[in-house]
Amino acid sequence: MTAPLQEPTKEADPVAAGGPAVDSGVKKVEGRSLKQIAWNRLKQDRVALTGGIVVLVLVVVAVFAPLIVGLLGHPPNEFHQDMLDPLTNLPTGDLGGVSSDYLFGVEPNKGRDVFSRIVYGARISLLVAFLAALVAVALGTLFGIVAGYFGGWVDALISRIMDVLLSFPQLLFIISLVSVLPDDLLGLTGSGVRIAVLVAVIGFFGWPYVGRIVRGQTLSLREREYVEAARSLGGGRTHILFRELLPNLVAPITVYATLMIPTNILTEAALSFLGAGVRPPTASWGGMLRDALETYEHDPMFMVFPGVTIFITVLAFNLFGDGLRDALDPKGTR
Amino acid sequence: MAGSPHEGLPATAGPHTVLAYLIRRLFAVVIMVLVVLLATFTIFFMLPKWAGQDVAVLFAGKATGVEQLQGIRIKLGLDDPLLVQFWDFVKGIPMGRDYANGDDVTHCAAPCFGYSFRTEVPVWTTLKDALPVTGALAAGACVLWLLGGVATGVVSALRRGSIWDRAAMTTALAGVSLPIFFTGMVAMGLFVHSFGWVHIADNLSTDDGIGTWFQTLILPWIVLAFLNAAMYARLTRATMLEVLGEDYIRTARSKGLGEGTVITRHALRSAMTPILTVFGLDIGVLLGGAVLTESTFNLPGLGLAAVQAISNKDLPVILGVTLFAALAIAVANLVVDIMYAVIDPRVRLG
């Protein structure tokens, strides 16, 4: 099993397995790995591709945030009181002060550039979502594969732990946890602590979802002939777990990780909305909506920009993830 | 989800097995709640200590004097070992508890979920006041989303690939991608502030008449139901498509049953099992406080109580609400496990 991700059904078929095709006058069939099949399917899925492109754009925006803001906006924490009506503290001009100078208008009360804060907010949102998904996938894969392969009391214990974690009041738990932790921890200061805490807790509560899927897959894979072959050839436990089983789990894990990122983005936004996210003045989308809660009756645009940004981001990840799942599905027909 | 639903159920079960099963499940619920309580305890009492913070300060606030802090330390028993503190708390729930520092005794009647040192109010009082609001919110929303979501999912599965299916699934995908606090604000902005169709009260109570009560809740119900209906529609559609391909559906059709009977009595009944699992968990989570919905609409339920307690750093209230939430989820899981037997004929309790 050197080539990971080989489609099981194709293995049994000598023609498709890349062997010399029987020349029967029909078109010669080339062997394709699941990766190639998936890529071909994905290329034809316009909706998923659009999602993927939006995701790429967002990543680029997050990475080059200082550059983009330098070109098109104002520093994210610069106050522009002159853009506000002195009586109401609301932005002057239509649509929350949208102009060529302030692309998404300015904040009520403080007059900060909304565009810049959205761009910088993408950094927090994507960073936390990606890293938390990474934590969840690492823990979930490890525990899931161990539970599924060893079975017995190991499986019983891990499954119990997953059940308990899945039925925790997670949001309440995370906000209370964040609220008792001090602002400087383990040598980290400023927004670094909150980011680390957010990644840790979101990832920690996410691993049982991955764990259950990996456990289920491992249960069905461990009885396969190739695992038995590896065992009879004298392969050790670690070898079987990580060299034989893991490569065959890459597809479901990838799909689940992709679909986990949008959920994490929503969780991070929710925590920031509740005041348990990164601390102000660091910009975050959820934090902007929290501020907007006070003024949205008078300045709806300040609520619309971060809200729509979250929506588009999450939708793009969901579309791409759904497309990826269909493309990697061995039963798929497309 | 609390284990596989059919776990430990023998195929032929007599009344004794039912009782044994229930006792085993109840036991699991108790264990679950104790684990959550222990975890919550660790978060509130041990983590701050490890991080170098004074727990008494967290409980009473930074402005509290040294003597008062010492008093709180003694009253709460903060210097006792964790397990002793844990036991005192657990014991307080059925027995009530006296927080004593010499002559200074604060009585907390059973069920004692703790005592707020900020407001001098037992946590149970806060819970009792907030629960009806959360209950009303959850009850209305779950009826809406269960009916709407399952119906949409079933129709989508039956008309797979049709315009209806695509429209419904696109809406559902948009629904699961929207943060509920944003949808809530948009709904409030449009229907309350711009159009003026809905008049909401500042405080949810039936004193202002049932009409106002209803109007205050209608938007939260719809917004919360929309998000969940989207998830249920996706889940129902996927499960229905899977079930409709099963052999026993073909059997049911070929023995001449009407399509309506096949769908409702055979397909939907089996498709309801995973939906019910999710539903049980969701209801449990919701009863522990619809944190985001309540914060957005300013509804004085459990979730808002917790959020306010967090911003006031009123730890006993957070502890109480979290524990209550865990209890709600555990009980909901238990109810779901029992319901399986009713819905799924493959599960036999006796």
Automatic annotation (TrEMBL), chain A:
For the keyword Transmembrane helix, the answer is: yes
The residues that cross the membrane are 47-73, 124-150, 162-181, 193-214, 245-265, 301-321
Give the UniProt family note.
Answer: Belongs to the binding-protein-dependent transport system permease family.
State the InterPro entries in the record.
BP-dependent_transpt_permease (IPR050366), MetI-like (IPR000515), MetI-like_sf (IPR035906), OppC_N (IPR025966)
Superkingdom assignment: Bacteria
Q: Where does it localize?
A: Cell membrane
What species is given as this protein's source? Streptomyces gelaticus
Q: Which Pfam families match?
A: BPD_transp_1, OppC_N
Cite the Gene3D superfamilies for this sequence: MetI-like
Q: Domain ABC transmembrane type-1: where?
A: 122-321
Query: Cross-referenced CDD domains, in alphabetical order?
Result: TM_PBP2
The reply to whether Transmembrane figures as a keyword in the UniProt entry is: yes
Q: Where is this region: Disordered?
A: 1-24
Q: What's the protein called, per UniProt?
A: Peptide ABC transporter permease
The membrane topology noted for this protein in its Swiss-Prot or TrEMBL record is: Multi-pass membrane protein
TrEMBL record, chain B:
Its record classes its membrane topology as: Multi-pass membrane protein
Membrane-traversing stretches: 26-47, 136-158, 170-192, 212-233, 275-297, 317-343
Listed CDD domains: TM_PBP2 (cd06261)
Chief site of localization: membrane
User: Pfam families of this UniProt entry?
Assistant: BPD_transp_1, BPD_transp_1_N
Where does the ABC transmembrane type-1 domain lie?
A: 131-340
PROSITE patterns registered for this protein in UniProt? ABC_TM1
Q: What top-level branch of life does the organism fall under?
A: Bacteria
Provide the protein's localization.
Cell membrane
**Entry's family note:** Belongs to the binding-protein-dependent transport system permease family.
Under the heading PANTHER family, the entry gives: DIPEPTIDE TRANSPORT SYSTEM PERMEASE PROTEIN DPPB-RELATED
Supply the name of the protein.
ABC transporter permease
Q: Which organism is it from?
A: Streptomyces gelaticus
